[in-house]
Design goal:
five-stranded parallel sheet; two-stranded antiparallel ribbon; 45% helix
């Protein structure tokens, strides 16, 4: 399975230049059966990355462009009146774009909170309730959302409840000079890149089940729990800089995300046990959107990544990699 997953990674890399970390953590999220939020400047390839992964995994795909006038029914679908063969009329459900295996929520923070909330049930329970009728989602089902970190006009910041439903938050950085040159060669030339379908739904579900069965030693689980507890400023043993800069720490979903992503990383690298390196590697993507800085933290220019890095350095490591 690890070999096939590496083939998926290589196939995506045929079309997406650089962005190694973004590609890998998006694949980890999919293996862990979770949703991911990708944040980066416009034109960094976030949308194309998600579209490429859906093609390589042979998943049904839909893209929802979030705008201030987008309505919940535009996402979930609605009942429409349809004439039958006998001439009578009846209500028929017209499913929305959310009824696909991979849903791209493009610029998710541009829609109003009411519209954003249309995703909450689907992301949490993997069902959608419309006029009292609960409908199941496709299997597997992922929401991969994008947002712009700098543009504030006409945006609605995601509420904490919705941020918490994302397994991880992935930062998409600006490409290096050599990557920029390669992007120009691929996008302005005559070469037409054909993507191969490396996996399908059945193989992906098998891979997800393998991730669930990965072993986590008690000391690894304890280390991950210590990481999450260290983000709480009101804890008995709270670190001084946590008290100084953090208003709220991570909840239980933060620990779930660390373990799920660590398991996915282990399977991706051909292992069936979680190592300390796995937990350290996934700590930032799993926790960066779950920490809320206070005024002093914002004013001093601290980022949640900075604080997670300091927590990783300060926690007693009673386990070996």
């Amino acid at each position: 399975m690890a070999e096939q997953l590496q083939r998926v990674r290589k196939e995506v890399g045929k079309f997406i230049v650089g962005q190694d970390e973004a590609i890998e953590y998006t694949l980890y999220s999919i293996l862990a059966d979770g949703h991911a939020l990708l944040e980066g400047l416009p034109g960094m390839g976030k949308t194309m990355l998600i579209r490429t992964i859906s093609s390589v995994l042979d998943l049904s795909f839909s893209r929802i462009q979030f705008t201030p006038d987008l309505m919940p029914a535009d996402i979930t679908g609605t009942n429409i009146i349809q004439r039958t063969e006998r001439g009578s009329q009846q209500f028929v459900f017209q499913p929305g774009p959310i009824f696909n295996q991979m849903v791209l929520a493009d610029e998710i923070n541009r829609a109003t909170p009411k519209t954003q909330s249309a995703l909450l049930e689907a992301m949490g329970e993997k069902t959608v309730t419309i006029l009292g009728d609960t409908k199941p989602m496709a299997k597997p089902f992922f929401v991969l959302a994008t947002q712009n970190p700098i543009e504030m006009e006409g945006t609605y910041p995601l509420p904490e409840a919705q941020m918490d439903r994302f397994l991880c938050k992935i930062l998409v950085p600006y490409p290096r000079k050599d990557e920029l040159m390669e992007i120009m060669k691929r996008t302005t030339g005559s070469q037409d890149i054909q993507l191969q379908k490396v996996m399908n739904t059945e193989r992906l579900i098998i891979a997800q089940q393998m991730v669930k069965e990965v072993l986590v030693a008690d000391e690894m689980l304890e280390y991950a729990a210590d990481l999450v507890m260290a983000t709480h400023p009101k804890g008995e043993d709270a670190l001084p800089f946590v008290k100084q800069y953090i208003m709220y720490g991570s909840g239980p979903r933060g620990l779930q995300s660390i373990i799920k992503l660590a398991k996915a990383r282990a399977v991706f690298n051909g292992r069936f046990h979680v190592a300390l390196a796995d937990i350290k590697a996934v700590a930032k993507p799993a926790l960066r959107h779950r920490l809320l800085l206070n005024y002093e933290g914002e004013a001093t220019g601290k980022t949640t990544d900075d604080l997670i890095e300091e927590i990783l350095h300060h926690i007693q490591q009673g386990v070996s990699a």
